[in-house]
Design a protein that fits this description.
75% of the residues lie in helices and 0% in strands. The chain is mostly helical. The longest helix is centred in the middle third of the chain and has 40 residues. The protein is rod-shaped.
């Protein structure tokens, strides 16, 4: 009788554990089928654990894998958002681009965009915009007869002096000197 009671209790605990783990993984939208043995069933996999140490090791591995999958999901989402931000910046290089505008476009908080942008791209949001706009300024200087103040205005730099300083910092020469070198 004691053995039957122990077996029922073990089966009941495994059932509850299975229910709990399934609920957790479904609520986090994690694909957990690869955790199971060849039966592809959490309950059967846990029943095949013969000792408490086996169950403990299974659970430790199970939660390590869930955490890893969640981290990968977050990283994948961040990469997607940063890619969308870069596409927006490149498509709007002739507009007044700001962190707030791009974050609003992506429906995320500007601080979050700033953080993940720096992590993914390796430079700040502002540094990236300056680099893109200066590359476009260089292209316009080489391929148009626009005056420097017109190029600055096209790229939404209202202060030509500021535009010139950024260009010189980026390329080592002023926009006028760059045009003369071409």
């Amino acid at each position: 009788r004691v053995i039957k009671a122990d077996i029922r209790e073990k089966d009941h605990l495994i059932f509850l554990l299975t229910f709990f783990l399934t609920k957790i993984t479904y609520s986090m939208k994690v694909n957990f089928k690869h955790f199971f043995s060849r039966e592809n069933d959490l309950y059967t996999t846990l029943c095949n654990c013969h000792t408490m140490n086996d169950i403990r090791n299974f659970l430790l591995n199970y939660f390590d894998e869930i955490i890893l999958e969640l981290q990968n999901k977050v990283k994948s989402r961040n990469s997607f958002l940063v890619k969308q931000a870069i596409e927006y910046i490149n498509a709007n290089v002739y507009s007044d681009i700001s962190l707030v505008k791009v974050a609003d476009h992506l429906s995320i908080h500007p601080n979050y965009l700033s953080k993940i942008f720096k992590q993914e791209v390796g430079e700040s949001f502002i540094e990236y915009i300056i680099r893109v706009k200066m590359r476009e300024a260089k292209n316009l200087i080489c391929n148009s007869n626009d005056k420097i103040y017109e190029i600055a205005d096209k790229l939404h730099y209202k202060d030509v002096g500021h535009f010139t300083r950024l260009f010189k910092k980026t390329y080592g020469v002023s926009p006028t000197e760059y045009r003369q070198l071409m």
